[in-house]
Automatic annotation (TrEMBL):
The modification 2,3-didehydroalanine (Ser) is found at S141. One of its GO terms (cellular component) is cytoplasm. InterPro entries: Aromatic_Lyase, Fumarase/histidase_N, HutH, L-Aspartase-like, Phe/His_NH3-lyase_AS. Belongs to the PAL/histidase family. Its main location: cytoplasm. This is Histidine ammonia-lyase. It holds the Pfam family Lyase_aromatic. Pathway: Amino-acid degradation; L-histidine degradation into L-glutamate; N-formimidoyl-L-glutamate from L-histidine: step 1/3.
Length: 511
């Protein structure tokens, strides 16, 4: 993959962060980087006063630094800012962060040397992955703490994983055949002043959230059949007169998945209409789709932005201190994504309740098991779903509305964007498990329907999904440990196997 600071996409993030694709810097980016670096060197020769180059940082912005101390200034910056705590970020998040930082530097506005940028790319390509604590970023001035831990390894310090083993950064660089960097003026600041940690975590969460929005249609369709839903609610006429794009797409998916089903009903026979969790699937799932589409647009802009400070504009002969490091665009949209994805879990859990509750499940056995009483069936699976939904409710409290001043009130409003991104990824994980539980319950309900009505057919799309689930998870005949079943289905969701199965044989669902 060639990066130039302009064209990175969400799909590219997955290719490099998850699938471990390699990266190369575009030739034109090399030229921009070298031009920007020459301008920084001119600043140093002229003893110009430029923030972070010939001055201290934060509240120390008015402290002048001599030209002979500029190297020490950059190393001290990295060491002092490596103050993270908590669990380490997963490898995919760190790989995404490295890619995003390299892409931002490739724009040529940061004043870094080409050789330093190439070192970061070499680490990514050869699998030297810094150990980066997950906590400590305020999201302005960018992700200083996590990015500093990334740069520690670049200078031969800190810790990293290499070929599956955790070791010192120095050892990892040696084994990979990469020479550690001796930071020059501006380079430490150029490497850590940006929004790449929050954007990395958020990008990975967003990619799975988009996948979950498609899985939710499938799990809802299975439940819809199991509960003999009234399909008229998905009629094209209904949805075209309220023309939200996501709603129209979801209704189309539902019709496609349920085509040919003999388990669905029509209004007035025997029901006039369904409860909201069935009837309003396009309205709820569609709103989530629309939200995710907007969030993707914002995130991809951020992926291709220069977010450090100051920025170098050689063609204009100027260096400008600004605020592109402020993570507010990502912070707000990560909170937005958390709210949107939590709604997929919320409505799915209510569908699960309808499946297992004998007062609501259209004549199915209580908790979807024969010989109830002796067997508890899927009773506690619903408990787990309810627990995850409740946890999501605590997680969706916005991080972006909070701010605590730092650096002696010089940095007096911050975004908390990395907290928002971490919360969003946890909400996605919880929602994945709720949808796995819905698939488990819906497949069991369909088993029971088929048992009493052997001559009825499932929809063309739902039949594929039902058969695939039954290849991976057995029908529940009597009580067993359910945790492994949920885990197996959640893993199939995460790896995209369920979508792949449907689309291979049924044609593409609407993205």
């Amino acid at each position: 993959m060639i990066i130039d600071g302009e064209h990175l996409t969400l799909e590219d993030i997955i290719e490099v962060a998850v699938k471990k694709g390699s990266v190369e810097l575009a030739l034109e980016s090399k030229e921009k980087v070298e031009t920007s670096r020459k301008y920084v060197e001119k600043i140093i020769r002229n003893n110009d006063v430029v923030y972070g180059v010939t001055t201290g940082f934060g509240k120390f912005c008015n402290v002048n630094i001599s030209s002979q101390d500029t190297r020490d200034l950059q190393v001290n910056l990295i060491r002092s800012h490596s103050a993270g705590v908590g669990e380490y970020l997963p490898e995919d998040a760190v790989r995404a962060m490295m890619l995003l930082r390299a892409n931002a530097l490739a724009k040529g506005y940061s004043g870094i040397r080409y050789s330093t940028l190439q070192t970061l790319i070499d680490m990514l390509n050869k699998g030297v992955i810094p150990q980066v604590p997950s906590q400590g970023s305020l999201g302005a001035s960018g992700d200083l703490v996590p990015l500093a831990h990334m740069v520690l390894v670049m200078i031969g310090e800190g810790e990293a994983t290499y070929k599956g083993k955790v070791m010192s950064g120095k050892e990892a660089m040696q084994l990979a055949g990469i020479m550690p960097v001796t930071l020059e003026a501006k380079e430490g600041l150029a490497l850590i002043n940006g929004t790449q940690a929050m954007t990395a975590i958020g990008s990975l969460a967003l990619a799975e959230a988009i996948n979950l929005s498609r899985i939710a249609d499938i799990s809802a369709a299975l439940t819809f059949e199991a509960l003999n839903g009234v399909i008229d609610a998905f009629d094209e006429n209904v949805n075209l007169v309220r023309p939200h794009k996501g709603q129209i797409e979801c209704a189309r998916n539902m019709r496609k998945l349920l085509e040919g089903s003999q388990f669905v009903t029509h209004q007035g026979n025997p029901k006039v209409q369904d409860a909201y969790t069935l009837r309003c699937i396009p309205q709820v799932h569609g709103a989530v789709r629309d939200a995710l589409e907007h969030i993707k647009e914002i995130v991809e802009i951020e992926m291709n932005s220069a977010t450090d400070n100051p920025l170098i504009f050689p063609e204009s002969d100027v260096v400008i201190s600004g605020g592109n490091f402020h993570g507010e665009p990502i912070a707000i949209n990560m909170d937005y994504m958390g709210v949107a994805v939590s709604e997929l879990a919320s409505i799915a859990e209510r569908r699960i309740e309808r499946l297992v509750n004998p007062s609501l499940n259209e004549g199915l056995p209580a908790f979807l098991v024969d010989n109830g009483g002796l067997n508890s069936g899927l009773m506690i699976a619903q408990y787990t779903a309810a627990s995850l939904v409740s946890e999501n409710k605590t997680l969706v409290t916005p991080a972006s509305v909070d701010s605590i001043p730092s650096s002696a009130n010089q940095e007096d409003h911050v975004s908390m964007g990395t907290i928002a991104a971490r919360k969003a990824r946890k909400i996605v994980e919880n929602t994945r498990n709720v949808l796995a539980i819905e698939l488990l319950c819906a497949a069991q309900a369909i088993d029971l329907r088929l048992k009493s009505k052997n001559n009825q057919r499932l929809g063309k799309g739902t039949k594929l999904m039902y058969d695939f689930i039954r290849e991976k998870v057995m029908q529940l005949q009597k009580d067993r440990v359910l945790s492994n079943d949920i885990k197996n289905l959640a893993e199939l969701i995460k790896r995209g196997k369920l979508i792949e199965k449907v689309e291979k044989e049924r044609g593409n669902l609407v993205n």
